[in-house]
Design goal:
By secondary structure, the protein is of the alpha/beta class. It has a single domain, classed as Indigoidine synthase fold (3-Layer(aba) Sandwich). Strands 1, 2, 3, 4, 5, 6, 7, 8, 9, 10 and 11 form an eleven-stranded mixed beta sheet that branches. Helix 6 packs parallel to helix 8. The two termini are about 25 Å apart.
């Protein structure tokens, strides 16, 4: 047993019995949404996972332990702390564990803990990627490297549309990460279903995705899989409106010299403000949609 890993009783029981479990990240709680919307959304997403036949396992580092499966009090503590909580990616784990600190796990961080716990399916909003202007800044999310080496399937609404989507897809292709469109051969653009960027792979059912998971890992190919699940049409934003908001937020970030791990939270917060809250509602809807699909895939994989 990993001395730094704690699995909740509910999650541990489900794993022992071979039941479906879905990992959920915690930076969306601390850094992705304002209080108390973040706590409400975290609890609702867990309910969605249960409603579709799986057990939710929200992941974080709590008091120096990697935890798979948080209780309501722990979720509330992360939600209230907000940006005061450290964002925990691979490089941050040794410090946080050694100092018995608390950290909200990013996509990369959540994948690591999910893998340690034996949870093969993870639902999030959008994965990180190659930032705009990365040819000068070298700003590339650690999520992409984690996807290249950690064997967890990630259901998302594509990469966050604040990123350079063509470069992000090219990076994933170079690192051998399958990107499967759920019912589509076009990469979703987070707030909208369409990016104009074609995908090589499409799947039309959770069972089809589960079969590809088995084939990839059973043949000895380690590494993650991305399932790009388009936001439901009724919650998608107008492409012109959201692209103008993103462009404005990016310009403001450049003017304020916001960089590194602070960039994505800054951009998402400004986009919510610029759109009058509409982008937040779209974000919540797509996360729930991804949680439902992830649960269905986890159930199919557990059969």
């Amino acid at each position: 047993m990993n001395p730094y890993l704690e699995i909740s009783d509910e999650v541990a029981s489900a794993l022992r019995e071979g039941k479906a479990v879905v990992a959920l990240e915690s930076t969306i709680i601390s850094h992705g949404m304002p209080w108390p919307k973040n706590l409400d959304t975290a609890l609702e997403v867990e309910d969605v996972v249960r409603a579709h036949g799986a057990v939710p396992a929200t992941i974080a580092i709590m008091n120096g332990k990697m935890k798979a499966g948080l209780g309501k009090r722990e979720l509330e503590a992360l939600a209230k702390s907000g940006h005061e909580v450290a964002k925990a990616s691979r490089r941050d784990f040794p410090r946080l564990l050694a100092e018995r600190a608390t950290g909200a796990t990013t996509v990369a961080g959540t994948m690591i803990v999910a893998s340690f716990a034996g949870i093969p399916v993870f639902a999030t909003g959008g994965v990180g990627g190659v930032h705009r202007g990365a040819e000068a800044s070298w700003d590339v999310s650690a999520d992409l490297e984690e996807l290249a080496k950690t064997s967890v399937l990630v259901v998302c609404a594509g990469a966050k549309s604040i990123l350079d989507l063509p470069k992000t897809l090219e990076y994933l292709e170079t690192r051998g990460v399958p990107v499967i469109g759920m019912g589509t051969k076009e990469l979703p653009a987070f707030y909208t279903s369409h990016s104009g960027i074609p995908l090589e792979e499409q799947a039309d059912s959770p069972a089809e995705i589960a079969s590809r998971m088995r084939a990839k890992w059973a043949c000895g190919l380690s590494g993650g899989i991305v399932v790009a699940n388009p936001i439901p049409a009724e919650f998608a934003m107008d492409p012109t409106t959201i692209n103008l908001a993103i462009d404005q937020a990016v310009r403001e970030a450049e003017a304020a010299a916001v960089k590194g791990k602070e960039l994505t939270p800054f951009l998402l917060k400004r986009i919510v403000e610029i759109t009058g809250g509409d982008s937040l509602e779209s974000n919540i809807a797509l996360v729930k949609n991804n949680a439902a699909l992830a649960a269905e895939i986890a159930v199919a994989y557990a059969l």
